[in-house]
Amino acid sequence: MNPPSTTALLDTPLLNYCIALGDDSLTLGHRLSEWCRNGPFLEEDLALTNVSLDFIGRARLFYSYAAKLEGKGRDEDDIAYLRDCREYRNFLINELPNGDFAVTMARQLIVDVYDMGFFSALTQSQDPTLAAIAAKAIKESRYHLRRSEEWIKRLGDGTEESHERAQNAFDQLWGYVPEMFEMSDVELQLVEAGMAVDRSALKANWESTMQLILKQATLDVPNENWAIGGGRDGIHTEHLGYLLAEMQFLQRTYPGQQW
Amino acid sequence: MVSLDQQTDLTRLFDLLSSVVDPEIPVLSLQDLGVLRDISVTDDVIEVTITPTYAGCPAMNTMQADIENKLAEAGYQQVTVRQSLSPAWTTDWMSENGREKLRRYGIAPPATSACGQQKSTIECPQCGSAEVKRISEFGSTACKALYQCKDCLEPFDYFKCI
Ligand SMILES: [Zn+2]
User: Fold this and answer.
1) Residues B77 and B101 in one domain
2) Number of domains in chain B
3) Which one, A68, A149, A153, B159, has least CB within 10 Å?
């Protein structure tokens, strides 16, 4: 096999990078959409589904760009609906079931704090499309974070039960955090090319922000020493299969169906 | 070089599109909203550039179709609507006229600029009171939050700053 040319080296990793970022947004957006008509009260139902839409919109932008980079006639829908579990590259935390409201909001806080760091760094990308998507996303994440932070403080510093549930939620999720800051060699090449974000460099800031918020919420920073990863390599929890089964059913059963 | 004919055409095109409105807030035109960014004519092809308010805003597809239909009705067949992401849309682009229309429609306009500078206070669009409270960060659409007036007790939508 011939060594790949510099362009190919950047093209395929960049394409995969966009797909992975789209997958993070789509899986979480889908999970949030499952709250539709199940929210604890009307306003919260609307909020959860509004945030869901923001994530799905983000996924569309990343997938459309990936489709364009690939140039093989696939579109955003093909990328979303016609790939199986092993081809999905999202972080595991995004595909986990919603759990109770505390789990949903704890995950949201973890992701929102991460997104603030990630997208503000991505606005500096040498790739103008990625930088533009990031500039769009960060405005929305600022809003998302304001809400998830408020909720965690209310739940943590609320009743005995809400405190316990919030603490359990963070304990359950904590082991899914490390993979968000682990870089692959391919991604490091993109960082060197000035296109991608060095996620490992975001960790310290993420940790100090989370410590501060959890402290205000009278919650303990989990003392968990387990870590589970593999999402970026296509190794997922069993939950993703069920998520995709529901999300992709229509397009798999009636290919190309529109409405 | 823009020829005289193109200049006339552009004015006419902007006029035509001034009647295309946000499907979810029909008092605001796409110009009022700052969503319509540019119109250009190259040879016989019209390119209209719009920018999404929110990445997942479901109204964007409708807006695009409305633009195409409006131009087709006026006899323009070769139209491309392009979505541009950069610079990212901000409520700062909403025209003064647009803010006033929103208020009359019952939606409080954005109070601060995107960089956080206070432009005005959030006032109840019904009675004008500044004694208001936020009920929810998110309202009936992505661009709005839900507030309530403490004086007249009316709940109202507030157009968020972004
Ligand atoms: Zn009032």
Assistant:
1) no
2) 2
3) A68
